UniProtKB/TrEMBL annotation:
This is NADH-FMN oxidoreductase RutF, flavin reductase (DIM6/NTAB) family. The keyword Oxidoreductase applies. Residues 10-150 form the Flavin reductase like domain. InterPro entries: Flavin_Rdtase-like_dom (IPR002563), NADH-dep_flavin_reductase (IPR050268), Split_barrel_FMN-bd (IPR012349). SMART domains: Flavin_Reduct. It comes from Lentibacillus persicus. Coiled coil: none annotated. Keywords: Oxidoreductase. GO terms for molecular function: FMN binding; riboflavin reductase (NADPH) activity. It comes from the Bacteria.
Length: 160
């Protein structure tokens, strides 16, 4: 199989969209990601995956912390901004949860301390020990087959 076929196959798995953020020397850094999963309830652990050539890799290694903002369907612009797909003319404002930067109005904000890290292929997996969580109501932003989706749009399309 070639890389395009592998990428297309992985794109068939619908995911939520997250912004991973950390702070180093008073500066907040973020990236859009969908490689995120829960691992354990006791202790509460999650995993994120960061590509080896991503600027975020060294920043998380330095800070030893990160936060996950699970985006709502209204936050597609934030996803595109942190994925480098668009330039946002307005400065992005962050809130803090347990001292870690999170995006306001996200469906879930999850603050973590790095528990361990593993290099696998061209990515590093960071296991994060969850230190705090904040939840909001709303619908998730979904990514599938290279496109953004929302549950409401999918419901309307399937009813037609």
């Amino acid at each position: 199989m070639d890389n395009r076929q592998f990428r297309n196959a992985m794109g068939k798995f619908a995911t939520g969209v997250n912004v991973i953020a950390t702070e180093v020397n008073g500066e907040v850094h973020g990236m859009t990601a969908n490689a995120f999963m829960s691992v354990s309830m006791d202790p509460k652990l999650v995993i994120i995956s960061v590509k080896e050539d991503a600027q975020m890799l060294d920043r998380i290694k330095e800070s030893q912390t990160f936060a996950i903002s699970v985006l709502s369907e209204e936050q597609q612009k934030m996803s595109m901004t942190f994925a480098g797909q668009i330039d946002n003319d307005e400065p992005v404002e962050f809130e803090y949860l347990d001292g870690k930067p999170v995006l306001p109005n996200s469906l879930a904000q999850i603050a973590c301390d790095v528990s361990s890290e593993y290099v696998e292929g061209d990515h590093t997996l960071f296991v994060g020990k969850v230190t705090d969580i904040q939840l909001e109501d709303g619908q998730p932003l979904i990514f599938n087959c290279g496109r953004y989706h929302s549950l409401e749009n999918e419901k309307a399309n399937s009813a037609s």
